[in-house]
Amino acid sequence: MSSGVRLDEEREYDRDGPLLELEGVSKHFAQESGLLAGLEFDPSEFPPISVDRERVLAVDDVSLAIQPGETLGLVGESGCGKSTLGRTILRLLEPTEGDIYFKGENLADLGGEALRQRRSDMQMIFQDPQSSLDPRMKVGQIIEEPMRAHDMLDDEGRRARAKELLEKVGLDPRHYNRYPHAFSGGQRQRINLARALSVDPDFVVCDEPVSALDVSIQAQVLNTMERLQDEFGLTYLFIAHDLSVIRHISDRVAVMYLGHIVELADKEELFENPQHPYTKALLESIPVPDPRETGSRGVLEGEVPSPVDPPSGCRFRTRCPRLIAPEGYDWTDEEWAQTRAFMRAIKRRTFEPMAAARIEAEFFGGSLPGGEAGSIVDEAISLVATDRGADADGDDDSERWAAATDLLLEAFAAESICARERPAYELATEYGDGEHVAACHLHR
Ligand code: SF4
Question: Where is this region: Disordered (predicted)?
Answer without folding.
Answer: 292-312
